[in-house]
């Protein structure tokens, strides 16, 4: 049996930009994508802690080390600059693959730097 499991999460990322006229997506600093194991164009779920909105889009790679979280296109109507988001990526796993599996979680500070991590990210990777 295949199961859909949480693969990666950016917890309490802060929106830095919104661009409603863009064709769509959520642009995320490349270093955050790499640490979380989220691929460019991968589907993501976004949960807005500031207003309760929940929506699906895809990840776009933005400049490294800038802490950018830009909600674009129609999704920009569901978030505003400074909103806090939970950004999640899910994946299909077989029953065998989930044994011992833990999702990668990046806990974000207010400036979108990483305050701490859980599970798959080695601590030296965020130094």
Task: Write up this protein.
The chain is mainly beta and 127 residues long. It has one domain: Barwin-like endoglucanases, CATH 2.40.40. Helices cover 6% and strands 48% of the residues. The chain has 1 helix and 9 strands; from the N terminus they run βββαββββββ. The chain has a 9-stranded mixed beta sheet. A hairpin with a 5-residue loop joins strand 4 and strand 5. The longest helix is centred in the first third of the chain and has 7 residues. The protein is globular. The termini are far apart. The model has no long low-confidence stretch (mean pLDDT 92). This is Aspartate 1-decarboxylase. Heterooctamer of four alpha and four beta subunits. Catalyzes the pyruvoyl-dependent decarboxylation of aspartate to produce beta-alanine. Its main location: cytoplasm. Belongs to the PanD family.
